[in-house]
Amino acid sequence: MLLERLYARPRLLEAAIALDRAAPAVWLGLLAAALLPTWAWMGRRVADGSDDPLGVLALAALAVTAWSCRRQLRVAPRLRWLAVALLLAVASSVAQGWWPPLPAALLGLASLGAALAAFLPARVAAAPVMGLAVLSLPLLASLQFYAGYPLRVLTAEASRWLLSPFFLAERMGSSLRVDGRLVIVDAPCSGVQMLWLGYFTACVTALWAGRADKSFLARLPAVSAIVLAGNVIRNTVLVAGEAIGRPMVGNAHDVVGLAVLGFVCTGIAWVMHGNGRHV
């Protein structure tokens, strides 16, 4: 009887549909409001120059994804993901003031990603959504601090191996001595920013191509390999220039870095796009 009345009154039916569609937005809005301490900390960390603002790109990608699916949001969310979102949100709230800000913010952003996964249609994979939620954190400085040196050592050793057929090269920590010239593999050469951009490209391409979770996760090792190879090639080219007495400085250095980054992101997009959608 209620359905008959609704169909008899188109405006009433439209209002009912709009109300159903508003429920996911209300849930997501309340969760975003609950993360106000996290947003405030993230804003301060970016504003004071403590970290790069690349996370804004990930937040924008999440917003575009949600907006593009606004008419297909689930009225009945996936309960597993909704439960994960609520648990993570509670954990983030409890962690405020007890844990360091970054882990607490990680829990909060992960809860937002899980909530989006709960309401987005089935054709949208959850894994790249969660990936973008993690990438939205201002974490590059922390990654540089904890993972920068090991990545620099790995990059230096791989570059030494590539340079050895042409130069007398040896590695000393994260530095290289090439034909008697000491070349330091510094923090920007660790590849942390390239790693972030590589995974960002992977997540965005997977969402655009409609790639399933298992397929997306299976391609992540290839993404890491492409980033590592790109960073090693960039470092090798720059070190070779130093070795022959023609160091690339200023614009030349930036051009090499941007060119390699372009090839890396293109390769990752090709790997993630594959042979079509929903593969």
Overview in brief:
By secondary structure, the protein is mainly alpha-helical.
Describe what you observe in this structure.
The protein has 279 residues and is mostly helical. The protein has two domains: 1-138, no CATH class; 140-279, no CATH class. Helices cover 72% and strands 4% of the residues. The protein is built from eleven helices and three strands. A three-stranded antiparallel beta sheet has the order 1-2-3, with helices on one face. The longest helix is centred in the last third of the chain and has 31 residues, at 213-243.
Note the main attributes of this structure.
single chain; about 280 residues; 2 domains; three-stranded antiparallel sheet; about 70% helix; about 5% strand; elongated
Low-confidence stretches: 12-20
User: How would a textbook summarize the main sheet?
Assistant: 3 strands, antiparallel
Helicity, as a percent range: over 70%
How many extended strands?
A: 3
Secondary-structure element pattern, one letter each: HHHHHHHHEEEHHH
Mean pLDDT, to the nearest integer, reads 83
Give the strand order, joined by hyphens, for the main sheet: 1-2-3
Given helix and strand content, the structural type is mainly alpha
Overall body shape = elongated
Count up the helices.
11
Output the radius of gyration.
23 Å
Q: Estimate what percentage of residues fall within beta strands.
A: under 5%
